[in-house]
Amino acid sequence: MTFDLRLCRVGPWPVNSYILVNEQARTSAIVDPGADPAEILKQVSGTNVSDILITHGHEDHVGALGEIRKATSALVHLHPADAALFHIKYDLPLVDGKEIFIGGSRLRVLHTPGHTPGMCCFDLGDGRILVGDTVFKDGPGKTWSAEDFTRQMQTMQEIVFAWPDETLFFPGHGDFGRIGDERPLFEAFLRRGWSSALFGDVTWSA
């Protein structure tokens, strides 16, 4: 059974917090509770919140984690690399390829390092992938060193742009996109090449 996907934009940035709902079981999961816990909890009203999934440990994605966890008693899933880096307590580790069941609906974890070492995406199994800050329309997530950008580009080539063109990706900020629409820009970026010192906010069209 596919998930009902709900978007909740929260905080000053804003951040896209997502709600995954199995309507039949009335069970839900919260992805990236960045801020405004009352608004997020309103979105899950009438469901049993079983899990909290964290794409990565940056504060804008976990700012409401403590309050949401206290209100729901849900299990927190996070990659150990980000848990260690950002000092975040969690219940279950995110591991590449791991399957997580939410009320009988299933998603798969994809480890996509670059923006952070523990960055993860959640493949809903129906052509929709929640990507956190892995990739956006017209560019990859921000990096803080040339080494991070090299790793980010490896993730782009080996994972993200290996997805079918029809794949819809739902990022941590801004609007959702389609891999097929981004592919020509990405491939043109690859052909042009880039400085070995490049990092930061990069766009495919730069």
Summarize this, please?
Helix content is 26%, strand content 30%. It has helices at residues 37-43, 59-62, 65-72, 80-86, 146-158, 179-192, and strands at residues 4-10, 15-22, 27-31, 48-53, 75-78, 92-93, 99-102, 105-111, 120-123, 128-132, 135-136, 139-140, 168-171, 177-178. The protein has a single domain (4-132, 164-180), classed as 4-Layer Sandwich (Metallo-beta-lactamase, Chain A).
Mind explaining what this structure looks like?
- The protein is an alpha/beta fold and 206 residues long.
- It has one domain: Metallo-beta-lactamase, Chain A (4-Layer Sandwich).
- It is built from six helices and 14 strands.
- Strands 1-2-3-4-5-6 form a six-stranded mixed β-sheet.
- A hairpin with a 4-residue loop joins β2 and β3.
- The radius of gyration is 16 Å and the shape is globular.
- The chain starts with a strand and ends in a 14-residue tail after the last helix.
- The model has no long low-confidence stretch (mean pLDDT 97).
